[in-house]
Amino acid sequence: MKTMCRVLDVSESGFYAWRKREPSHRQRENEQLTEQIAQAFQMGRGVYGSPRVRAELQGQGIRCSKQRVARLMRQAGLRAVHKQRRVCTTDSHHNDPVAPNLLQRDFTAPAPNRKWLTDITAIWTAEGWLYLAVVLNVYSRFVVGWAMASHREESLVETALWMALGRRQPLEELLHHSDRGRKSTSLAYQAVLAQFPIQVSMSKKGDCYDNAMMESFFSSLKTECVHRQAYQSRAQAKQSVFEWIEVFYNRQRRHSSLGYISPVTYEQQTCL
């Protein structure tokens, strides 16, 4: 100890006095806040960065700056998972009629159920691919319809659409936007849309950015749920995805585009 104090140019008496000193008030506050940050991080399933963690703390009545939260998260080794780029796999090689792009990349809506987006993605399991079709409400990012199956036939996207229609029963004119994939352009799918006051909009060929919000949703799903585990069966993947969508994403996950509240809370606060 004498040698260390001499090398570091510290007096022995000063070192021992430092060891006996009680933690400062600021240090005790940081320790308590770090515990609260860790709890908020766990509540966010390890996918929240410092802005969402801070929003979670503020929701609990805990006031703190974003810089302080970011610093304490770094010191505690709490890092959110990062999104990976999704590859577009739309099959647009068909002769079905297509609709014009009425959405024009305007991912805003004045009220719920004025604009819906839809798409399909694939999830790998040890039993083979599981396909997921989703209908997303642009206004609140709420998933209004979904369906999963071992195939990607027309019935998959129809099932997701019927769930959305049954859940929301849109009475005013609704814009339904999709890519030009064979499932969305099929006569059977279009016949379902024709039964309701729905305008049909489709992306330009090979342009994923025309349905960017839907792509972003699938990116979050893969990053925060699918890629964090290896599914041994389709049934296991179905349970995991269902729980992420209905329990976490729709009702708990804080969305930066919604002011760091969940889709359910956003609709409740803005549609009274």
UniProtKB/TrEMBL annotation:
<dbReference type="GO" id="GO:0003676">
    <property type="term" value="F:nucleic acid binding"/>
</dbReference>
<protein>
    <submittedName>
        <fullName>Transposase</fullName>
    </submittedName>
</protein>
<feature type="domain" description="Integrase catalytic">
    <location>
        <begin position="108"/>
        <end position="270"/>
    </location>
</feature>
<comment type="function">
    <text>Involved in the transposition of the insertion sequence.</text>
</comment>
<dbReference type="Pfam" id="PF13333">
    <property type="entry name" value="rve_2"/>
</dbReference>
<dbReference type="GO" id="GO:0015074">
    <property type="term" value="P:DNA integration"/>
</dbReference>
<dbReference type="InterPro" id="IPR036397">
    <property type="entry name" value="RNaseH_sf"/>
</dbReference>
<dbReference type="InterPro" id="IPR012337">
    <property type="entry name" value="RNaseH-like_sf"/>
</dbReference>
<dbReference type="InterPro" id="IPR001584">
    <property type="entry name" value="Integrase_cat-core"/>
</dbReference>
<dbReference type="Pfam" id="PF13276">
    <property type="entry name" value="HTH_21"/>
</dbReference>
<dbReference type="InterPro" id="IPR048020">
    <property type="entry name" value="Transpos_IS3"/>
</dbReference>
<dbReference type="Pfam" id="PF00665">
    <property type="entry name" value="rve"/>
</dbReference>
<dbReference type="InterPro" id="IPR025948">
    <property type="entry name" value="HTH-like_dom"/>
</dbReference>
<dbReference type="InterPro" id="IPR050900">
    <property type="entry name" value="Transposase_IS3/IS150/IS904"/>
</dbReference>
